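Hi R.,

Here's the chain you asked about this morning:
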Amino acid sequence: MTKSFLFFSFLFSVETGMFTLSHAPPRLSFAGTFQKSGGLAKSPSRLFHSLSVGSPPLKDLSDEGEDGRMLPSLGYKWCLIISYDGTRFSGWQYQTSTPTVQCLLEEALIRITKLERDHLCVVGAGRTDAGVHAWGQVAHFTTPFNYDCLAGVHKALNGLLPPDIRIREMRSVPPEFHARFSVTSKIYNYRIYNDTIMDPFLRLHVYHSTYKLNPAAMRDAAKNFVGKHDFSAFANTSRNDRIPNPVKNIFRFDVIETGPVLHLEVEGTGFLYRQVRNMVALLLQVGREAVPPDIVSNILASRDRKELAKFTLAVPPHGLCLHAVNYNEDQLQLPSGCPATSRGRHHTISKCKLPYY
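And the predicted structure, written out as tokens:
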């Protein structure tokens, strides 16, 4: 399987409308991040000038919105790697009534680019549920203009977003890249604090289980999830899914002990609504030794959500984190004439001579 791990991380002057950053070639790192950054960006106010002087021709980036509408657009496609604490958000997907991550991201992009929501065509790699966190959520958006540099835009986005949402990286991607449909696999991590007294500093991000768990039994049970299966028994019905394919391919399901914390990390081609939380819930019952490890195969074979409900309910969302989204490398090549990746930059205090006393 060919894949790459995406984890993406502007000093904007109102008077000049310019952004600054030195050019440097990008380097793909399989540790989970794109290295280096670069460039000098064109302000949206200089759109017509930038399109006529030295810019590649506009590309047709007709795209599908989160609500399924085809949104025609001409221009350039940009990819973001986003981390967020999902505690106070009603998930990723845009909603008009409650705060979501996509809603706040689009508000920031609208202010920076001066474009309308339908022109930005923001699409996320996955629709994390209310209360679910992300370390490596991926999203793309489009603009009719190019940038010479992304450092200023990157900084401006983080300046407008609340502190519980951060853009880790920003990069240019080819027109055929799609944050959702180009995915080769996703990695989710569910953390369980297995001790009598909960660490109060972890309470918003780790599920507390006072039952003494058997990690070895949980590993044996998790092996039954690996492979291509119909996961109908582990999915809740979602009004947002049009006709979801219940067959998913799970590449691995690891149970890792780190002190009192158990990390249940699963990687697969994709996941149905609440599938990960339902799988973890059954593994918890196995860890408590309330059910045997081979029950996983029996419930999978039933393809009936009611069978799982006889043994457990879904675990709470706050222990779940979208850890990474993976794509083929050819989907991530920087287009010609586009700026290098921005991963943020450090500021330093210039040295100066102090007076003698």
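Residues 1-57, 67-72 have pLDDT under 50 and may be disordered.

Let me know if you need anything else.
M.
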